[in-house]
């Protein structure tokens, strides 16, 4: 396939016609056709375009990792090199670091919660570098916390819930944080790694719950309630697999919960908890881990179609990213060209030929 193997600048991007690509449209693969990249968006006019002969390769919307943590530009490069064109950050303490990583042409585009809300005694409160105002002790402080995050530009709110007695925010604080975020028009993502924390997140009105329980699988009745309440789950099976192995807990509880939630109709998003944080039970590699996550989701009972949707259209929909997640004219040109058919074998997402981030082309070496 004739593709220049260097990353283009914005000025170089111009117009490119990808000829003979099979496009994943969110339901199936199209017959071979042409897709036009016009600057930073998907276009329709191929006149004067540089032509790339794709030879029947599969074109996916850029992949979205719905749970990452950010550290430096290298985090973004590793995401991009594995076809992850959008990363949803679930806690970055430094505003300066976060600002430096937003909107970099040719690298993974990010959204972020900024500082996450913590209780005084949980594991997260002991991580190096946690700012003092991350610890939220009462409902009045919860409202001030949310006001500050909104003023700083947080795209959504992240709360770390723990089972009662394990050092997380109590229910009144969870409730106040969620209500204040919703009053500001922000969605709320709640960390919950056990069924009691899941119950607290649901009682507070969380929009999304991240992680899957490791104490026991959610029952069919509990999963049905999560679905009826309209909640969305980011199970981070890659992280739960690592934590289970490191702590002797049951990974089967996590996969069983995903199976129950999926059967109940709960939207499942692909997120990895990619991190290099000292003190965590398991560090998850940026980029490569999303492909492992898709494989774990399929092993837990999702179809390959559902897994692809979990990393494309569904996170775009549930995080309000209306300019991406599909391959349609006018949308952001976030694209991944892969060898093989991931609807037949989800492992084909690993065979990344070329990535476009906002129309900027990069071929991983």
Automatic annotation (TrEMBL):
Signal peptide: none annotated. GO terms for molecular function: hydrolase activity, acting on carbon-nitrogen (but not peptide) bonds. Coiled coil: none annotated. Gene3D superfamilies: Amidohydrolase (3.40.50.10910), Urease, subunit C, domain 1 (2.30.40.10). Keywords: Hydrolase. InterPro entries: Amidohydro-rel (IPR006680), Metal-dep_hydrolase_composite (IPR011059), Metal_Hydrolase (IPR032466), Metallo-dep_Hydrolase (IPR051781). It comes from Solihabitans fulvus. SUPFAM superfamilies: Composite domain of metallo-dependent hydrolases (SSF51338), Metallo-dependent hydrolases (SSF51556). The keyword Hydrolase applies. Residues 58-359 form the Amidohydrolase-related domain. Pfam families: Amidohydro_1. This is Amidohydrolase family protein.
């Amino acid at each position: 396939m004739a593709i220049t193997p260097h990353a283009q600048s914005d000025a170089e991007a111009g117009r490119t016609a990808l000829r003979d690509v099979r496009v994943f449209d969110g339901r199936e693969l199209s017959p071979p056709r042409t897709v036009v990249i016009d600057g930073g968006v998907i276009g329709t006019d191929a006149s004067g375009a540089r032509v790339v002969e794709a030879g029947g390769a599969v074109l996916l919307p850029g992949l979205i990792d719905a749970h990452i943590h950010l550290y430096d530009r290298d985090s973004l490069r590793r995401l991009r090199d594995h076809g992850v064109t959008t990363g949803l950050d679930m806690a970055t303490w430094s505003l300066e670091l976060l600002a430096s990583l937003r909107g970099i042409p040719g690298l993974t585009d990010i959204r972020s919660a900024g500082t996450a809300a913590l209780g005084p005694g949980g594991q997260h409160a002991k991580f190096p570098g946690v700012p003092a105002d991350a610890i939220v002790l009462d409902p009045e402080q919860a409202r001030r916390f949310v006001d500050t995050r909104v003023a700083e530009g947080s795209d959504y709110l992240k709360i770390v819930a723990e089972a009662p007695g394990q050092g997380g925010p109590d229910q009144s604080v969870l409730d106040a944080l969620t209500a204040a975020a919703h009053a500001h028009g922000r969605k709320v993502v709640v960390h919950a790694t056990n069924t009691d924390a899941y119950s607290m997140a649901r009682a507070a009105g969380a929009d999304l719950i991240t992680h899957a329980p490791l104490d026991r699988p959610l029952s069919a009745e509990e999963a049905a309630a999560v679905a009826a309440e309209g909640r969305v789950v980011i199970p981070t099976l890659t992280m739960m697999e690592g934590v289970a192995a490191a702590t002797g807990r049951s990974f089967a509880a996590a996969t069983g919960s995903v199976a129950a939630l999926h059967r109940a109709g709960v939207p499942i998003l692909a997120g990895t908890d990619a991190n290099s944080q000292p003190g965590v039970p398991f560090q998850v590699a940026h980029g490569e881990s999303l492909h492992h996550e898709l494989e774990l989701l399929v092993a837990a009972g999702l179809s390959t179609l559902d897994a692809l949707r979990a990393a494309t259209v569904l996170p775009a929909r549930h995080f309000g990213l209306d300019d991406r997640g599909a391959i349609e004219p006018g949308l952001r040109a976030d694209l991944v060209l892969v060898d093989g058919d991931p609807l037949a074998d989800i492992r084909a997402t690993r065979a990344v030929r070329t990535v476009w981030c906002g129309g900027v082309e990069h071929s991983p070496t």
